[in-house]
Amino acid sequence: MSDIRVGTSSWADRLLLASKWYPREANSPAGRLAYYASRFDLVEVDTSYYALPTPETTTAWADRTPPTFTFDVKAFSLFTGHPTAISALPRDLRPAGDPDSRVRRRDLPEATYDELWARFRTVLEPIATTGKLGVVLLQFPPWLRYSEAAKRRIVEVAERCRPYRVAVEFRHGSWLDPDNARYTVGFLARNDLSMVSVDMPQGHASSVPPVLIATADPAVVRFHGHSPAWGGGDKQEKFRYAYSEGELARWADRLREFARETDELHVLMNNCCGDQAPRDAARLAELLGRRPDGRYAKPRPLVSSHS
Asked: Would you identify the CATH topology of the domain 3-287?
């Protein structure tokens, strides 16, 4: 079986901090990260999607976590085609205009765009040099449909991330519909890109089926939950979901089987509402027989098999 790592999509989400999942003594960023890393061996950095952290910050993250800890880092929103607030750009790279207005790549000089990428790679270096960088996660918007032009765009963005490992998450069903699925899988495999498998609500344009296929190492699975508000709720409503014992048990079985196809499997709970993500991640890790230090332990028996 491959190395299975389990964690959550953020350790400093505002709602998580308010949930009191962290003990009172973990009352600083350093203390919270240390506490998190004592319970999980993987985390997804989502703050880098909203703004570039500083190299000093990522150096501190690397210094304050165990040698076997892994960070998957989400790429800055501008890089994956999302309109991005001017205020999210570094001050010296911001174009003139309302700080709250949004820009895309085409709105910036090529030199500015290149410099943003250079700074992003600088941010990754402290994590990578300590061997703690898992993948750079490219999460593309719901309007990016399957097309040859979209494939070229993905390759161009991925190449800017090299030599680091890259994972791609689609949020439009056309990529894995019956007509395109095998071409999508082949495209990702040829370009050494990990396909992010997702568990999410179905029946929406942004829905991607929970297909477990390893196109590169590591394989990545993200759990968004099944909120009925996915189609129209705000972020909190869309991701408010508690996985049942039965759901987690069935997923543990699927993940163990999937792990046979890859050298390393990253499993991330993204049902980030309060402390539900770490609660579900901890139980899933337990069902998989994982301990906080990344070693295997004998799983505890199920309390219930009901879903």
From this structure: TIM Barrel (3.20.20)
